[in-house]
Design goal:
The chain has about 475 residues and is α+β, with helices and mostly antiparallel strands. The chain is globular. The protein starts with about 20 loop residues before the first strand and ends in a 9-residue tail after the last helix. About 30% of the residues lie in helices and about 15% in strands. Helix 1 packs across helix 9, helix 4 runs parallel beside helix 10 and helix 11 packs across helix 13. It comes from Gilliamella bombicola. Belongs to the catalase family. It catalyses: 2 H2O2 = O2 + 2 H2O. This is Catalase.
Length: about 475
Amino acid sequence: MSDKKVLTTNNGAPIADNQNSRTAGPRGPVLLDDFQLIEKLAHFNRENIPERRVHAKGSGAHGTFTVTNDITQYSHASLFAKVGKQTPVFARFSTVGGERGSSDTARDPRGFSVKFYTDQGNWDIVGNNTPVFFIRDALKFPDFIHTQKRDPKTNLKDPQMMWDFWSLSPESLHQVTILFSDRGIPDGYRHMHGYGSHTYSLINEDGVRTWVKWHFRTEQGIKNIHPQKAAEMDGANPDSAQEDLFKAIEHGDYPKWRLYIQVMTEEQANNHPENPFDVTKVWSQKQYPLIEVGVMELNRNPENYFAEVEQAAFEPSNVVPGTGLSPDKMLQGRIFAYADAHRYRIGTNYQQLPINAPKCPVHNYQRDGAMRFYSPDNAPNYEPNSVDNAPKQQPQYAEPPMHVPAGTMDRHDHRVDDDYYSQPRALFNLMNPDQKQLLIDNIVGSMKNVKRDIQIRQLKHFYKVHPDYGSGIAKGLGIDVDLIKS
């Protein structure tokens, strides 16, 4: 019998595959019977109290979203009903890996989340300032975030953990290239784009579903911070992004983002050479050009940070009629994980808090629980019932069926495509010489104390992206380029 330790679930059952969620076919949706995924995400959400496990350090503001272009051919959502319609919003920006007291100038993706208080319920876009992510399967999310947190023995941030994981997860190359580029440290929150990142869906009045990508493009222009300047700012004011956003709004300099979509028909998706639900990849804007939707303006600061920012709860499961989800494996995991994290961190009735409460009537049969604000008078807590005027289901709001590829229910390997390199290569080729050198210098600085075998493993990936990319980093680390060409 082997002396190797067997990976198990919490009840001691051996795990055969810790890389892939169970899905209905290779591109199909994640299955609820994947108890391994549920256990992993549920335990991860409960590891820390009381701050957010990720996106702990953040800033927020109130504002409006105004429709500027008719997209009713794609969606019957009420907030898009006509040009000029205005919807109140609350947006929260954040770093990802740091704690609540961490620096606003860390090299880290930035969370970019918006809650639309529509007249048909709250709709949330919960994304980042990058169009892609490091992983494509939610089963790996706890593992990935552990590498961004502190070593359980030393309680220190450790590049060794990051690069060990990334070098064994080549699907991360696209996001790693963005993270270590000049856009890895945005100059505050006003000067960065935002993305839904995942593929979502819109549904029109005829029940036709269209796949979409959401893009918020800053009207203030992109501004980034050089690492040396970031270190200086961190020492002088670790809350520089919070201060910049708050003061801009306080002085009437209201930041704006123009919202766009990319659209892909179901037929186009079925014939797309790449998986259109893979969050580690983007859609070509030449093939799927940006279509303007409207403008978001932030024009009011919170009156109480804890009540309005710290207790704000965003979740991709908040959809409204005319909007929808997709079979994206990471998105499907987040649908469970975010709401579960809020129930744990804030309480089961977190959606009744003023910052999270819809601005339209809410009628359901949920009752009681800690911190329950209200319950309907003289109403039952079960359904179906024969009580007059009790809430009843409305079939007209049903989504059209979502077709999934025929296939077996199994843990399908998400690393069968082999194309981890073309999109990072396209991004690298878009950079000018100064941007390429800064990217290389940033990675050298991060990898310099990582074990040599991990350096070489990762460098082989960079070299496959582009020889100049891999050899430039190898030179900075003092590694013979011949060692990474294989």
